[in-house]
Amino acid sequence: MNRHFLGDTAVLLGRSLRHIARSPDTIITTAVTPVAMLLLFVYVFGGAIQTGSGSYVNYLLPGILIITIASGISYTAYRLFQDLQGGIFERFQSMPIARAAVLWAHVLTSLVANLISLAVIVLVALAMGFRSGTGVLGWLAVAGILVLFTLALTWLAVIPGLTASSVDGASAFAYPLIFLPFISSAFVPTESMPGPVRAFAEHQPVTSIVNTIRALFAEQPVGSGIWTALGWCLGLLVLAVTFAVITYRRRIN
Amino acid sequence: MSIPPATPQAEHPAIRVRGLAKSFKDLQVLRGVDLDVARGSIFALLGSNGAGKTTLVKILCTLLRADAGSAEVNGFDVAARAADVRESISLTGQFAAVDEILTGRENLVLVARLRHLKDVGAIADGLLRRFSLTEAGARRVATYSGGMRRRLDIAMSLIGNPPVIFLDEPTTGLDPEGRIDVWRAVQELAEGGTTVLLTTQYLDEAEHLADRIAILHQGRILVNGTLEELKRLLPPATVEYVEKQPTLEDVFLSLVGTAANGEQR
Predict the structure, then answer these.
(1) Structural domain contains residue B53
(2) For residue B25, what are the domain limits?
(3) Does the beta carbon of B190 lie under 8 angstroms from any beta carbon of chain A?
(4) B158: which chain A residues are within 8 Å (Cβ-Cβ)?
(5) Is position B2 within any domain?
(6) Chunked in runs of 10, what are the mean pLDDT values of chain A (253 residues)?
(7) Is-contact B86 B52, C-beta < 8 A?
(8) Lower CB density within 10 Å: C or N end of chain B?
């Protein structure tokens, strides 16, 4: 590892965070859609959805947090694409800096921005009656899973950011990610779905992650689901980093 | 005054290119380029669009790898010692590589930090003064004119005093005043001992600035020499008497009032 890696990453992270501070709309737009969904599902559809005991907002929040991340990470692809277009990427590449720092700064920026959005969503949910009796450890576990999921999806977003030929292309990849929670246990229990859909829903990553977070909030045993959730997150992270790094190497050679 | 040149090779040229070739798929962009650039000189690489100028600059700046041949910058091989090359150079690319959302001063501080320098604030303020950007320094670059962006771009390239500077079409898209500002900055650099390799498609720019000029055409260097040498390649001049009309540039500059401080240098 280059001896300047940490310092260079910190400098570039400061730059990207300043971008966010100056155009806070990237955080607001990330938070607006999930908040609207939260309102819509709790106050409009929620009355007709049977989730068993407990309030629907308690049931819904984990899925909304996942949707927040899925839409928030597309800004990484956008920011990376802008850097490549503007020529500042080439300036950084021709300077004596740790090359990996350029990507890591964008990834960490995404992490910070998403954590802010997530905090906003949780506050809105609390105002709407979301309650959890879980302690500090439970919250830390939830935060840990969300951080891991954000990192995995952000590294995935790096790939279109490096390869896209237009702004639209750079952010379009996120749409399927935003849809994934709909075919999961995020909004309704999977038991209500017809066979093949249910089979898909129960074996895709969102369901295990959502169920784990829900169990942590409800102070119920997470069972083996947490290992499935962590397995998906870590597996996705390793795959995404590998392909992102390959794409990056190809790009700079 | 700055990054030490690789001392054993101090008498070597600042840039040495031998047999450099590069293709993109079936397209041969460079087909065996040879050139030397002496330390402290201004070297202009002249060529039309698609001649391969940018590709050559990118290889010398370690942004691209050559398929064949060799290149040394400041005595370091660009393939084997890319990190040392990056310590020795700065690149001002074809599009102003500035951060629009940051202020001018923040852009300079950013580059100074990434070059791991101390006293970054003082460096930024000094360069803002030198490039007449002090007043604009606290404004976001998005509000800058094309000429101001270019000046900032070049100022960013000077941070850390790299001994070799690459300017890829530094005046494309600039108005005449902006162009003269850039020319002045380039001349000051060379006076300070920096080696400058610039690419351009404007003949007068090469004529005005460069100690040596090479014409790159279809991936090969057609000619390489001083302006006088290039002129000698043509049949001797015939003597004609014509009324000396002011050029449009003369008219423009006298009306706008910057001809005096721009052209005198």
Answers:
(1) yes
(2) 7-95+163-263
(3) no
(4) none
(5) no
(6) 84 93 81 87 77 79 91 89 87 89 93 92 89 86 93 92 84 79 83 84 86 87 84 92 89 69
(7) no
(8) N
- Number of domains composing chain B: 1
Looking up residue B84, the CATH number of its domain turns out to be 3.40.50.300
Q: Work out whether strand B42-46 and strand B195-200 pair parallel, antiparallel, or are unpaired.
A: parallel
Is residue B57 in some structural domain?
yes
Give me the domain span that covers residue A101.
5-252
| Domain presence at residue B221 | yes
For the entire predicted model, the pTM comes to 0.83
What ipTM was predicted for this assembly?
0.83
Helix (H, G, I), strand (E, B) or coil at A193: coil
Is there a contact between B86 and A7 if contact means CB atoms under 8 Å apart?
no
User: Residue A94: its chain B contacts at CB < 8 A?
Assistant: 61-63, 86, 89-91
Residue B87 near chain A (CB below 8 Å) = yes
* CB contact burial B76-100 (16+ within 10 A = b; e otherwise): bebeebbebbbbbbbbbbbbbbbbb
The answer to whether A152 and A240 have CB atoms below 8 angstroms apart is: yes
Domain count, chain A: 1
User: Which amino acid is located at A179 in the chain?
Assistant: F
* Residue to test with chain B: of A13, A91, A97, A251, most B Cβ within 10 A: A91
Cβ–Cβ contact B263 with A under 8 A: no
